[in-house]
Specification:
The protein is mostly beta strands. It contains 2 helices and 15 strands. The protein has helices at about 5-20, 265-285; strands spanning about 30, 40, 55, 60-75, 75-90, 110-125, 125-140, 145-150, 165, 170-185, 195-200, 205-210, 215-230, 240-255, 260. The chain binds calcium ion (CA) (2 copies).
């Protein structure tokens, strides 16, 4: 049985990640992210919205659900496969800020995404730290607003989350793969947080603007896990099918992620500078 005394810190971290676009969860070290504005063009896929032109936004909110199958790899470690997806609610001009009006989202069309992921988990203090090894997603515009995501039951038969309903009308507008990402799992009101940086390849002319100007955009996917069910109580790392997760978050985009030196390389860099200064002072004397 693991304890979750770090929940206060985790919630604070998750709220920070939600409240500040530049705040990165500490499981995505070494990658800075400064979101740029992006545009959407509903007309590009035959939908009404944005006055027949484009709308500008910086963030897109979503809710999501996922199911996880895990295989024990040690006393306090496991590997996992995950499937999931979610629905998009609102485009915003800033994090938690004003809603971009007139986009047509959830009036003329809806938007959803599906993803698959693999990774590893390990006990870290009193929480579970997760690392993604793979994360593949595709975002769709559902023109007829009739596509639904299937459910998985915690602790039930092995299921996956995928699309059902009418998806012949759906248009892929964005797809990408993992750069780096991870998550925390804790017990309590908010069951941890997640953060992934992934590539963001615009499809069918829906996304554009500054964030996609280089032709090779990246997305920062941040959020909190609100409900997690099915983690084995006696050993959280035991073999299990269909741990279910519900959560919410937001995504933003930029043309290139800016690398941030790790503390260790910063320290080495400092040493190198000190050495250089020493060499210079010696040469001078
Ligand atoms: Ca499953
Ligand atoms: Ca549809």
């Amino acid at each position: 049985m693991i304890e979750f005394s770090k929940i206060g810190k985790l919630v604070a971290g998750a709220v920070l990640a939600m409240a500040s676009s530049v705040a990165l969860a500490d499981h995505v070290p070494g990658i800075g992210f400064t979101e740029k504005t992006f545009t959407i063009n509903p007309g590009a896929i035959g939908e009404a919205g944005c006055g027949g032109g484009t709308c500008k936004a910086s963030f897109l909110d979503f809710s999501y659900k996922a199911e996880v199958d895990q295989v024990r790899t040690g006393a306090t470690t496991a590997s996992f496969d995950e499937t999931g997806g979610g629905y998009f609610g609102t485009f915003r001009t800033s994090l938690g800020g004003p809603v971009v009006g007139g986009t047509g989202l959830n009036n003329n069309y809806s938007m959803y995404f599906v993803f698959t992921a693999t990774g590893t988990t390990a006990l870290s203090g009193t929480t579970i730290d997760g690392t993604f090894n793979t994360f593949n997603y595709t975002m769709y515009v559902d023109r007829n607003m009739n596509t639904t995501l299937s459910n998985a039951q915690a602790g039930g038969a092995d299921q996956s989350i995928g699309v059902s309903g009418g998806f012949a009308d759906d248009v892929a507008v964005l797809t990408g793969t993992l750069v780096q990402g991870g998550f925390h799992i804790a017990q309590g009101l908010a069951n941890g947080d997640f953060n992934a940086i992934a590539t963001a390849i615009a499809l069918n002319g829906f996304f554009g603007g500054d964030a996609f100007a280089s032709g090779e955009a990246f997305t920062d996917i941040n959020g909190v896990n609100s409900i997690i069910k099915g983690i084995p109580k006696t050993n959280p790392f035991a073999n299990t099918t269909d741990i279910t997760i519900d959560g919410s978050g937001n995504t933003s985009f930029e043309p290139t992620p800016v690398p941030v030196p790790e503390p260790t390389s910063l320290a080495l860099f400092g040493l190198a500078l000190a050495g250089l200064a020493f060499a210079r002072s010696k040469k001078k004397a």
